[in-house]
Design brief:
The chain is built from 7 helices and 6 strands; from the N terminus they run H-E-E-E-E-H-E-E-H-H-H-H-H. By secondary structure, it is α+β, with helices and mostly antiparallel strands.
Length: 199
């Protein structure tokens, strides 16, 4: 094993120590925590450009809420850990880690100090996703204005002001693009399904 691969193994171990204390279970480079209808997951994604002289990886965080799925008519699997996450983000967007990846050469010192702290911040973020409403808030706050399931959930649960706010945010962000008529039609189709008027 090369020196960089040994450092990578140390980084995996450092992440694992943090996540284990918060109830996550590890399978290869994926840590999963299943609660009451909620799944939180943290995974490492090795860079495709890795070589013996360059080892880098990304950290992803995701969440799934069964009640959110049920509200919009999606099937909930018996094994919640096998469900497709409704929310996913990279750890640099929810922690103080300064770049979009961990580079085992550049970040050698940070692996033992800043990386565990960043993973704690990731856990704190996931701890805030406890039910369908907090999942919806997280999706909206993260800028997922084109998320069909989020819009459907707002409509299905009678949160009409939130549905209209998502549509308005999407129109402001994407309204000048050529694809906007198609996107707007998707919003309108979902709104009509639930009897919601967008204006």
């Amino acid at each position: 094993m090369s020196d960089l691969e040994e450092r990578f193994a140390d980084a995996v171990a450092a992440i694992g120590r943090v996540l284990k204390t918060h109830g996550f279970r590890k399978k290869r480079y994926v840590w999963t925590r299943v609660g009451d209808g909620v799944v939180h997951e943290v995974d490492l994604q090795r860079s495709h450009g890795n070589s013996p002289d360059s080892v880098r990886f990304y950290v992803n965080a995701s969440a799934y809420v069964a009640a959110f799925a049920r509200a919009i008519g999606d099937r909930v699997p018996e094994n919640l850990a096998s469900a497709t996450a409704q929310y996913s983000t990279r750890f640099e967007t929810i922690s103080e880690w300064p770049t979009d990846r961990v580079d085992m050469e550049r970040d050698a010192e940070a692996v033992s100090s800043a990386l565990p702290s960043a993973i704690e911040q990731v856990v704190t973020h996931l701890d805030g996703i406890t039910d369908e409403a907090s999942l919806a808030r997280t999706l909206f706050d993260s800028g997922s204005f084109l998320d069909d399931d989020l819009f459907a959930w707002f409509c299905a649960t009678g949160r009409l002001a939130d549905a209209r706010a998502q549509f308005a945010a999407a129109r402001e962000r994407f309204g000048t693009q050529d694809r906007w008529p198609r996107l707007a039609a998707n919003f309108d189709e979902t709104a009509q399904k639930y009897g919601v008027a967008l204006s």
